[in-house]
Amino acid sequence: MEKAVKQLKDKGHQVFGVKCDVTNEEEIKSALDQTYEHFGSVDILINNAGMQHVGPIEEFSTEKYELLLKIMLIAPFMAKKHVFPLMKKNGFGRILNMASINGLIGFAGKAGYNSAKHEVVGLTKVAALEGAEHGITVNALCPGYVEKSVNIPLEKALELVIYPLVPQKRLLSVDEIADYALFLAGDKAKGVTGQAVVMDGGYTAQ
């Protein structure tokens, strides 16, 4: 984190870095409170922590399943719980939950990941309704296959997954996902809330 903070400061940005265990509610609240105290507001919250574990349900450990839910479902819930009062003070907020197409359709072997992402989409809708009259929007961004997230060589991924399954026959870039996140966090998207916004090269249109 220190390296990232330094890089941003070197570019002239105002930066305040706080380490936080997203499975610890006290640390989440402290990080948000410190940020509010430093800047005078918390305008944007992006819930982006995640991990993956793959295996059939009968072999999927309960401990691993619970950990995935803690990181990708309970952590975003706790962050919303403690950021809402801060955003309400300023009458403005943009919350973005990094979901996935795994939050819209099923994938064998991904019991924990799929469960968490589906529930995050549901939580997004609830939070959007509760935040609407306070100037707070809440959306879930649901990317498909992304360049740097594929765990096999690129050529193999293209041959086995992307060309047969993705109509655009390409992987998403990290930059285009970041650009969409910035749009959803900006003023031009103030009417967009409670949505699972899909970026998947046409995968879920089939």
TrEMBL record:
Q: Which InterPro entries does the record associate with it?
A: NAD(P)-bd_dom_sf (IPR036291), SDR (IPR050259), SDR_fam (IPR002347)
Write one Gene Ontology MF term: oxidoreductase activity
Biological process (GO), any one: bile acid metabolic process
Q: Does the keyword Mitochondrion apply?
A: no
Alphabetically sorted, this entry's keywords are: Oxidoreductase
A Pfam family it matches? adh_short_C2
| SUPFAM superfamilies (UniProt xref) | NAD(P)-binding Rossmann-fold domains
As given in the record, the signal peptide range reads none
**Does this entry carry the keyword Methyltransferase?**
no
Similarity comment: Belongs to the short-chain dehydrogenases/reductases (SDR) family.
- Name the PANTHER family on file: 3-OXOACYL-(ACYL-CARRIER-PROTEIN) REDUCTASE, 3-OXOACYL-[ACYL-CARRIER-PROTEIN] REDUCTASE FABG
This protein is called what? 3-hydroxybutyrate dehydrogenase
User: What organism is the protein native to?
Assistant: Sutcliffiella horikoshii
Which classification does the entry list for the species? Bacteria, Bacillati, Bacillota, Bacilli, Bacillales
